[in-house]
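Entry:
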Amino acid sequence: MADRVLFVLESGGPGGLATQARGVAGELAALGYDAEWCLLDGPVASNAEPGCGRRLPADPLALRRLRRAVRQAAPAIVHAWGPTAAAYGAWAAGSAKLVVTVGRAGAAEPAWARLIHRGWRRRADAIVAPSSEVADALGPEATVVPPGVPIAEAASAEASREQLLAELRLPASARVIAIVSRMLPRKRVKELVWCADLMRVLRDEVRVLVIGDGPQLPALARFARMASDLEHVRLLGERSDLPRLLGAADVYWHAGDEQSPPLALLEAMAAGVPVVADQTPGASQTVVNNETGLLVPLGGRAERARATERLLTEPDHAAQLAANAQADIAKRYAIGRAARDYAAMYQS
């Protein structure tokens, strides 16, 4: 019988830890594991995945439902993704081992949050970080498991560029720049919208597609109307056809001061899109400047515009960078490798 693992997530929305968890779960079956799910914010009556119906940050009813889910699943391991899921998992895991994956090291936190985090850290049997920077912030007990992306699926996704351009009502001559991000201030999407207007001056045929959702989306839509225009900058919201959109892009832009390899950046590189990214700790672990992509100073709009113009005017160089990136991502960041690392941790 396969060893059973119960994944606990705050929510099941696309992006971040949820996307990573789903990718790992999909690979675990071949390694002898049966992965089940419980979403803290998911509906209680769900045919697909059990949810705890959490309504408050500290919800005793949600905790009781999670405990019930643990008893019913009887897992060997409860794997919590993110500190909120870890806080609930620490109380509900019972005799199961508790593994916690943390996406990023938190900034200054209030006293009550530090108290909760100390609780789950004492209970956790293993703490996982996506990079050495995050692991150092968490402490010596943290283990590094780099994130992974589904290489085969991303590399083989074939999108009809002409069909997509027609669907989005973009001109056939458009040069497409894609951005995938949660709409949060720390993701610095506003800086990219500023740069989009600079690119419009250089090349009127440039169209920037901003893909993703989040609390800052309405404010970004207003800013895009003021800083540029909605003909050149399209805010598409959350999309389920990301490989298709990336397949139609000429360049991918990434911003944000991450400490770990950004998942969206990995997906773009795996899809064979030449990338321009801020030179941050996370992106610098992922992109080798002028070998697998181009790095620019954090917030450097002029430098980003020049780097993008270089990729658009030197298609052979852009294609070589994209091919190098695909090979490097397949070697270092395949989701199968991440799943094997987790399986080895479960066994230990």
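The two ends are 18 Å apart (CA to CA).
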